[in-house]
Amino acid sequence: MELTLLGTGAPAGLPRPDCPCAACAAALGPDARAATALLLDGALLLDLTPGAVFAAARAGRSLTGVRQVLLSHPHDGPAVEVPAGLPQPGRVPDGRELTLLTGHRVRAVALDAPGTGYAVTGPEGQRLLYLPPGGAPAGLAEPAEPYDMVLADVVGRPDALAKLRAVGAVGPTTDVLAVHLDHDVPPGPELGRRLAAAGARAVPDGVTLAVGAYEDVPDVPRRTLVLGGARSGKSVEAERRLEAFPHVLYVATGGSRNGDTEWSSRVAAHRERRPGSWQTVETCDLVPLLKEEGPPLLVDCLSLWLTDAMDSVGAWDDAVWAERGEKALRERMQELTEGMRVTRRTVVAVSNEVGSGIVPSTASGRRYRDELGRLNAGFAAECEHVLLVVAGQAVVLRG
Q1: Alpha-carbon distances of 52 from 35, 182, 205, 211, 366, rounded to whole Å
Q2: Residue 183 is among the residues annotated as catalytic for this protein
Q3: Which end of the chain, N or C, is surrounded by fewer C-beta atoms within 10 Å?
Q4: Helix 363-380 vs helix 302-313: angle between axes, to the nearest 10 degrees?
Q5: Strand 223-228 relative to strand 249-252: parallel, antiparallel, unpaired?
């Protein structure tokens, strides 16, 4: 089954008309996107958009062989004119299946938002799922057979991808394409990096792909370290890297700090923005978790783990530190980094970068700063991806 993407943007396109934002200003050339529309084997058109005939011509395709036009979502604004020779667009009721003379079978998938998803099976058995903007499947059954290709609003609804993964509808060889891209996407290479962390990718308008070819499916990094200063956005970045995956285990190393209302507010804010399917455990005993099989881990954060470890070995006392504390702490740090080296789980860890600021005025403060620097360096050496977040922007250090 052959797919041509006549457009990959949001319904208003990218850039949006008369929008002065930075994302729209940067959406030039191959980064400019018309409203999403898909042409399958020249016979089935999913979503009719303005300029579809010209978009097909630019891609070296023709719409003269289209036998069915299906709409996936309500269209705002004036009705789109149907080009001469194309059949009238329609919608398939949820749960119903449509069989074309060309051998394609189209099943309508119910969503949790207005619109209809379409599961298309080609004449040779390849399977594709197309979801409209802002939509995620509803009532998924488990287990499901993996699709060869999924096209969805990955940036706007990463939880849709998580739901599909949870039931097996998206597997390691599923080619996940981000469509309906709007001006909330990061401009330039950052979009590709962010999508790759979710096992997805974006392609320019006009590209033709073979459904079922998975050579270009990005490998999700197993180990990632996200560094940053206070309020840099490092935790948000770490959570974003796993929001397209179900059943993530969030490991909070800071404890509850009973009586500290400011800390309780921070914890509550973190919990509110995490997906409901994630589980949370409060512990600094990370090594057993790294040894176990299981869903992805998000560790937030290593700097609080270090505080707990230094408390445990008496590292704040100069005499204890000189006698046995330093050796005991280094052994704990080595055990943690070795656990990271051999883990088979997907892990995203967060840590503070504190060595670029004011030199602490106390010996214990300088000790903590130095040991955190050593821990970050050792941990980063075991990670495929290392990011530094500055002012909410992720700078790639490795990967």
Answers
A1: 9, 19, 12, 21, 63
A2: no
A3: C
A4: 130
A5: unpaired
Count of all residues that appear for the chain in the document: 399
- In angstroms, the CA 20 to CA 322 distance is 60
Residue with tokens 């287990």: 143
The answer to whether 389 and 185 have CB atoms below 8 angstroms apart is: no
H/E element holding 352? strand 347-352
In the predicted model, is pLDDT for residue 173 greater than 60? yes
User: Measuring CA to CA, how many Å separate 298 from each of 61, 240, 305, 351?
Assistant: 45, 11, 13, 11
pLDDT at 357 over 80: no
Question: Per the structure block, which two tokens stand in for 305?
Answer: 């783990």
| Phi, psi (deg, nearest 5) at residue 321 | -60, -45
Question: How many C-beta neighbours within 10 Å does residue 320 have?
Answer: 14
Determine the residue type at 214: Y
Question: Residue 143 has what pLDDT?
Answer: 82
Q: What is the pLDDT of residues 253-289, one digit of tens each?
A: 985 555 556 655 665 565 666 777 899 999 999 999 9
Q: What is the largest CA-CA distance in the chain?
A: 87
pLDDT tens figures, 9-22: 999 999 999 999 98
CA atoms of 164 and 179, how far apart (whole Å): 16
- Mapped onto helix, strand or coil, the DSSP state of residue 393 is strand
Nearest Cα residue to 80 out of 97, 55, 101 = 55
* CA 5 to mean position of chain CA atoms: 21
Contact yes or no for 4/199 (Cβ under 8 A): no
Look up tokens 């980064």; give the residue: 31
207's tokens:
């590209």
Helices 302-313 and 326-342 pack at an angle, to 10 degrees, of 140
Q: Which of 75, 183, 247, 270 is catalytic?
A: 270
Q: Give the mean pLDDT of 360-367.
A: 88
Calculate the CA 46 to chain-centre distance: 24
Q: Which residues pair with 394 in a beta bridge?
A: 389
Rg value, the chain, Cα: 25
Distance separating alpha carbons of residues 325 and 208, to the nearest angstrom: 61
Backbone CA torsion sign across 299, 304, 306, 309: negative
Give the torsion sign (CA, 30, 31, 33, 38). Answer: positive
Instruction: Annotate 250-315 with three-state secondary structure.
Output: EEECCCCCCCCHHHHHHHHHHHHHCCCCCEEEECCCHHHHHHCCCCCEEEECHHHHHHHHHHHHCC
